[in-house]
Amino acid sequence: MKALTDLIAKRPWMAWLVFFVTLIIVFVLGLIAASITERRAEAVFVNTPTKEISNFEPRNEVWGENYPREFQSYYETADTTFASKYNGGAMIDMLEVDPRLVVLWAGYGFAKDYNQGRGHYFAVTDLVNSLRTGAPTNDKDGPMPSTCWTCKSPDVPRMMAEEGVGEFYKGKWSRLGAEVVNPIGCADCHDPKTMNLRITRPALVEAFERMGKDIKKASHQEMRSLVCAQCHVEYYFNKKTVEGANYLTFPWDNGMSVEAMEEYYDNMNFKDWTHALSKAPMLKAQHPGYEVYLTGVHADRGVSCADCHMPYKSEGGQKFTDHKIQSPLNNVANSCQVCHREETKKLVQNVYERQDQIIENRDKLEELIVRAHVEAKKAWDLGATEEQMKDILMGIRHAQWRWDYAAASHGGSFHSPVETSRVISTGITKAQDTRILLARLLADLGFNKEVPYPDIATKAKAQKFIGLDVDKMKADKESFKKNLLPKWIDEADAREEGYDKKEQI
Ligand code: HEC
Ligand code: HEC
Ligand code: HEC
Ligand code: HEC
User: Fold this and answer.
1) Mapped to the 3 state alphabet, what secondary structure does 183-236 carry?
2) Best of 86, 305, 339 for a ligand 3 pocket test (most atoms within 8 Å of beta carbon)
3) What's the rounded Cα separation, in Å, for the pair 426 and 343?
4) Does residue 8 fall inside a structural domain?
5) What domain range is 21 assigned to?
6) Kindly report the CA angle at 116 between 125 and 57, in degrees rounded to 5?
7) Cβ–Cβ under 8 Å, residues 115 and 93
8) 327 CA distance to ligand 2 centroid (A)?
9) b/e sequence 143-180, b meaning 16+ C-beta within 10 Å
10) Residue 155 host element (H or E)
11) Do residues 242 and 164 lie in contact, with contact meaning Cβ atoms separated by under 8 Å?
12) In this structure, are strands 318-321 and 312-315 parallel, antiparallel, or unpaired?
């Protein structure tokens, strides 16, 4: 300070200079502060709830009255126009694209019907239309348990609160047909009072508890992925947790890697189904998206699901979270270029390269497993014993589990290309080892030729090969949609009208 006083004593005009510079700085700071408060006021204005929302309000439109921007962008998940090289919002019949899947899933619902995921807006519609959910005629009928609703709708936390979690998982899928009608939405991820992110699915909280972790301690950035991990994960139905219930459970007790989950299932002798051709005790990987994402470089650097799939968006000076959850390749500017300086073309190419490279080996693995199933069937036909088949069937189970883990972790080829490749290569090794055992066994049984690869060039041929009567299933579905479905919808409409009356009182 002394230096400045000396300087001013020598040159008095310096004092005026300091005075004016300070004045300008204060003025500019004032302007900035005013602009900030103005924006804040705007933000408060936009996000001031005009309507009280109850804790389990399932109707997205009702939340939309308070948060129109988020609601409108959420509603755009109904857009099916975008298609990238392998993904996007369009309905793609995966069994038509890749008929090998029919053979891999022979004896299981997925061989009937399997489409690539669309936007969240379609979650309930697509489940109702799927041949996998069959054609129930009453509330105690059909192939699927009530648990299948768990990742489809904000009516799920509402029903869990009403009837208890264990009860929710009891009975048939058709039991809750009139209850679960609103597609995935606001109440699944938000607390209506604070709009903070919240976890509504007990399976995730319970899996964390069993791993000795408290999900309530998750950071804000972790929550931006954990809300997705309620559904985009591997799971199974445990029949022992609650008597009579298909209790939704994540198999993470030994870890989240493909090997750790396999060990978990093997130790409890769990199987999803018995393969129709090979009789192997199979596992169906559901969609271990979160688990595979965690092994990638983006997760390692703290990038969340929402960073890429729900980027910020600006409209009328208002910044908000884009709720059109979709392929980020439809919005590279907001999804990737916030962090990467490369051009759109380059970034898209990066994604496609990883996908192409992985899909090449994935297809090879599929072919090997199809062959193993067919060869195992041949061995049974030639009189192989359970004892002779034991290791072979476990080999098939483990190879296909690896294939499915990689294939069903949607987006995994980009989220974590190295891990996804590793899983596929260990699958290839398992499949090859198993086919060596099969070749020896077939030779012992007196068969020394190649078992012919089936003609499964189209979905129809593949379904015929495994003996599925798809026409009948389709006809039954139509009759379900004509008879039972309209009743569900009427009942749901009447109930929701009741909510509004209750609110008015
Ligand atoms: C309540 C369960 C649930 C939650 C929570 C959830 N999803 Fe989904 N998601 C689904 C289901 C079910 C589908 C498939 C819908 C269909 O095909 O009808 C899906 C589809 C998708 C798709 C495919 C969309 C398309 O256009 O191809 C993406 C991407 C996606 N989810 C990302 C996310 C992200 C990111 C989060 C977290 C911010 C998230 N999801 C949270 C259940 C959920
Ligand atoms: C799959 C989970 C998910 C669903 C479903 C969802 N949101 Fe969000 N929402 C988020 C995430 C993630 C954020 C970012 C939160 C953060 O970083 O604090 C967010 C942020 C918000 C915010 C804070 C302001 C902003 O835009 O960042 C509002 C308001 C909001 N959502 C409203 C809604 C409404 C209304 C719906 C239903 C139409 C909805 N959300 C459905 C995950 C979801
Ligand atoms: C929030 C920031 C962020 C966003 C958003 C983001 N990235 Fe990244 N990305 C990173 C970081 C950090 C790395 C690690 C590179 C490093 O640390 O040098 C990375 C690495 C990569 C790599 C090289 C790693 C690999 O897989 O081989 C590619 C390719 C990539 N990102 C593409 C994309 C694309 C495409 C998108 C949009 C869909 C995207 N990124 C979105 C931050 C981001
Ligand atoms: C760094 C950016 C980034 C992060 C982080 C990220 N994703 Fe993705 N995701 C992508 C890209 C890129 C694709 C490939 C899209 C394509 O092929 O069109 C993708 C694909 C997907 C798909 C398949 C999309 C479709 O159209 O069928 C799903 C589902 C998905 N991601 C969910 C998630 C979930 C859940 C998380 C967090 C656990 C997550 N993603 C984290 C960038 C990201």
Assistant:
1) CCCHHHHECCCCCCECCCCHHHHHHHHHCCCCHHHCCHHHHHHHHHHCCCCCCE
2) 339
3) 35
4) yes
5) 2-46
6) 35
7) yes
8) 17
9) bbbbbbbbbbbbbbbbbbeeeebeebbbbbbbbbbbbb
10) helix 155-163
11) no
12) antiparallel
Q: Name the pTM for this structure.
A: 0.92
Does any domain span residue 36?
A: yes
Write a three-state SS string for 269-303.
Answer: CCCCEECCCCCCEECCCCCCHHHHHHCCHHHHCCC
pLDDT in tens, the chain (505 residues): 566 677 677 777 777 777 777 777 777 776 666 555 455 544 544 566 788 999 999 999 999 999 999 999 999 999 999 999 999 998 899 999 999 999 999 999 999 999 988 999 999 999 999 999 999 999 999 999 999 999 999 999 999 999 999 999 999 999 999 999 999 999 999 999 999 999 999 999 999 999 999 999 999 999 999 999 999 999 999 999 999 999 999 999 999 999 999 999 999 999 999 999 999 999 999 999 999 999 999 999 999 999 999 999 998 889 999 999 999 999 999 999 999 999 999 999 999 999 999 999 999 999 999 999 999 999 999 999 999 999 999 999 999 999 999 999 999 999 999 999 999 999 999 999 999 999 999 999 999 999 999 999 999 999 999 999 999 999 999 999 999 999 999 999 999 998 877 655 4
**Residue in 75, 120, 308, 312 to alter for ligand 1 test, most ligand atoms within 8 A of Cβ:** 120
Per-position b or e across 452-475, b if 16+ CB within 10 A of its CB: eebebeebeebbebbebebeebee
Ligand 1 interacting residues, C-beta cut-off 6 A: 87-89, 117-120, 122-123, 126, 151-152, 184, 188, 227-228, 230-232, 305-306, 309-310, 325-327
Q: Which of 177, 50, 197 is nearest to 124 (CA)?
A: 177
Is the residue at 179 inside a domain?
A: no
Distance in angstroms between the alpha carbons of the first and the last residue of the chain: 70
* Widest pairwise Cα distance in the chain: 112
Domains held by the chain: number: 1
Residue whose entry in the numeric block shows the structure tokens 């008879």: 483
Angle formed by the axes of helices 386-408 and 344-381, nearest 10° = 170
- Using a 6 Å cutoff on CB, does residue 371 contact ligand 4? no
Report the C-alpha gap between 80 and 83 in whole angstroms.
8
In a domain, 325, yes or no: no
- How many Å apart are CA 32 and CA 35, to the nearest integer? 5
